[in-house]
Design brief:
6% strand, 2 strands, single chain
Length: 141
């Protein structure tokens, strides 16, 4: 076989793969840009959104954009994303059952963020321990 016959035989596959790679690269770049815009939009929220909620909303918004971008890239390459989403859902249920106690603590963190019984800068006392709140997150305060 010579080069011309190889090019004639494989050129359609090379072209199709190149277009898929270019589309995937474009999706990744757009995903990174949109995630950056989402983080900036959360940073520009009005003052009625407490400083405690901003990091959580920032993280959730950027991860949501990353997940959608990853699913789009997989779809470009012809991977059945429907079954992948179902598999991820089943895995999420299994992990949620395994980490039930930890997820209760995360839910408590969301309640602390939502109800705001104390804010950053408040001085609180628990037993003999007294301290100033520096940050309220999902896992730690």
């Amino acid at each position: 076989m010579n080069i011309n016959s190889l090019l004639n035989e494989y050129w359609p596959q090379v072209t199709a793969l190149s277009l898929k790679l270019a589309a995937a690269l474009l999706i990744v770049l757009v995903t990174l840009f949109v995630a950056h815009l989402a983080r900036r939009a959360v940073d520009r929220l009005p003052d009625r959104f407490d400083v405690i909620l901003r990091p959580v909303l920032r993280s959730i918004s950027s991860w949501a954009v990353y997940i959608v971008g990853a699913l789009l890239v997989l779809d470009v390459f012809g991977i059945n994303t429907t079954s992948l989403i179902a598999l991820l859902g089943a895995t999420g249920v299994a992990v949620a059952l395994a980490l039930k106690d930890t997820l209760q603590n995360i839910a408590s963190g969301f309640l602390l963020l939502g109800l705001r019984p104390f804010r950053v800068g408040d001085v609180i006392q628990f037993g003999n321990i007294m301290g100033t709140v520096r940050e309220v997150g999902l896992f730690t305060t």
